[in-house]
Design a protein that fits this description.
The complex is a heterodimer. Chain A is mostly helical. Helix content of chain A is 64%, strand content 0%. Chain A starts with 6 loop residues before the first helix and ends in a 5-residue tail after the last helix. In chain B, helix 5 runs antiparallel to helix 6. Classes of the chains: A mainly alpha, B mainly alpha.
Amino acid sequence: MTLPNSFDLLYKTWHPKVLKLCLGYTGDYDQAQDLVQETFIKVWHHLPTFRGDAQVQTWIYRIAVNTCLLHLRSTRTKPTATADPKDIHNIPDEQAEPDEQIMVLYKCISQLAETDRIIITLVLEDTPYPDIAQVVGISEGNLRVKIHRIKQQLTSIYKQYGRV
Amino acid sequence: MDEFELFKERWQQQPEPVKGPDLAGLKASNTDALSKLRRTQLWSAIALLATVVVLTWIGFFSGITFSSATTYTGLVLVLVVVLTQSLINFAIYRRLGQLAVTSSASEHLQQWETYYSFRKKMVRINSPLYFIGLNAAMGLYFIEILGYFSPAFIALFLVLYLGWMAFAYLYLGRRALRKEYGRIEAILENLRRLHGQLKEE
């Protein structure tokens, strides 16, 4: 994929995915919106330096992931944090009512370690493993081991809330 | 279908959020955290540089003359200390500019760890040195200036000046240093923890 000509198109295409990533990370809609905004400000500032030697997806996800991980000010990003289902209800609502099970899923994800939340959200978005490895900066082998462990952990947490 | 595939199906079925922040406002914005940090350092560097310019003019071009070489030595030392601090602020500004937000998370966390380790050293070494250097230089500068005043005024001035400096250094300065040091330690701890999560399993 090559770089779209305009930032507007880039924003339109990637905003929903970045928001889901940030929401998976924070479990809090307001914080997620702040992180999305900060991510796209960085995208806007760094767009002229994008050389096209990475995929747009990898490039944007790197900025988004770094923005999330560096968001150290809030205690709510700690692994023990849990998403408040009411936050998920804040998703703008020209759309359908958020699925109860999606809210539970966000809640489960918010109980994982920070980097695990990032990895699993990218997996749920069907991001190819080599791309996730590049975004996070670990080997693909290490990533596969982590994903296996996170899936087990997520399934186990989910069982506390009932099955899908 | 295994349980995780069901999660994924649910996840991908969720409605796409369509509303985002105002695009025009976003483009005009310059408020990401790194830019703020950089701007603070840049403005400090500029303010200190302006101080150097003004003091140079007062000391050497304004027509005010001092009779003692000690006063000029003090003035030059003030200029050196302030200029050095300005260059340090500028170096930090440049260093922050080298943090690559588009690098991988592992690399980016490492860059921040290195930066905050550097800041920790700065807080421990630079701040006390700046304070001591500046006050030693001011001390030399005041020797001649205070000679124009009465002994009572000199005594009052010294009590107030030294009292304020002792309070600023021993209480305010130490408290601020402790706070800043604690903040950096907390950030470093957090960065190391996040970095640790990415280690080989």
